[in-house]
Amino acid sequence: MCQDDCDERNIELKLERMSDFFASRLNRYDEHMLSEIEGAREFYPYTATLLPMEQGAKVLDLGCGTGLELEYYFALNRAASVVGIDLSAEMLSALREKFEDKEIKLINASYFDVPLGENDYDAVVSVESLHHFTAAEKLKLYEKICAALTQNGYFVLTDYFAESEAAERFYFSELERLISEQKLEQKEHYHYDTPLTVEHEIEVLKKAGFSGVQIMKKWENTYTLLARR
Ligand SMILES: C[S@@+](CC[C@H](N)C(=O)[O-])C[C@H]1O[C@@H](n2cnc3c(N)ncnc32)[C@H](O)[C@@H]1O
């Protein structure tokens, strides 16, 4: 997903903290995703079809936002039991309003910080949330996800990936430049897209312990990957 209103080189871009970015765009978030992100009208319903259909299936959604993927999932499995984690309290409030009658627990925190448990979930899903992080950050998170899944559990990742290794390096160097020029805290997470290539993403998933990773489908640079525990 491209940064809002900017060119390849983000000379003027003022970095915003991740949760502030989404809170301030909440009003038009769903409409923006569905009408402006290539493939969105297909990848949300498609992602939902890969999730477990058994009654009471336990699913963890990382970066659930306003619950776009969950709308399609609950339409297929009304009796799923979902835990959603998101940094933005505002996004979670919007989600809560959509699913008042559903079995859903929401955690307002970073998925890097929250313990995810062991052998607990039939599936973990994440849509359009993980393209902001380094391979090292993802490795630790993917190890936690792997451990949180049941024996036959799996992770469905729908996200956008860098078009080449050169593009991947460019995004990370741009982020470093912007943080340094704007004299920002290095450890904070800002909303700036730093996708890995899909090949690097798959390497990280396998390194984290997933036994197999399949590319299920793609729309331009957005892919759905399925990683089995
Ligand atoms: C582009 S939105 C995607 C939301 C939803 N999955 C969808 O596709 O509509 C990215 C979401 O990830 C959340 N997010 C980003 N980093 C996070 C983190 N470290 N922990 C939890 N949520 C995070 C943001 O707050 C935001 O709601």
Give a short synopsis of this structure.
With 229 residues, this protein is an alpha/beta fold. The protein has helices spanning 18-24, 29-36, 40-49, 68-76, 89-98, 135-148, 165-181, 198-207, and strands at 58-62, 81-86, 103-108, 121-127, 149-160, 212-219, 222-228.
Overall description:
- This protein is an alpha/beta fold and 229 residues long.
- The chain has one domain (18-43, 54-228): Rossmann fold (3-Layer(aba) Sandwich).
- The chain is built from 8 helices and 7 strands, in the order αααβαβαββαβααββ.
- The protein has helices at 18-24, 29-36, 40-49, 68-76, 89-98, 135-148, 165-181, 198-207; strands spanning 58-62, 81-86, 103-108, 121-127, 149-160, 212-219, 222-228.
- A 7-stranded mixed sheet has the order 3-2-1-4-5-7-6, with helices on both faces.
- A hairpin with a 2-residue loop joins β6 and β7 (222-228).
- It is globular and about 50 Å long.
- The chain starts with 17 loop residues before the first helix and ends with a strand.
- The model is unreliable at 1-7 (pLDDT under 50).
- It binds S-adenosylmethionine.
- S-adenosylmethionine is lined by residues 18-19, 22, 33, 63-65, 68-69, 85-88, 91, 110-112, 127-129, 189.
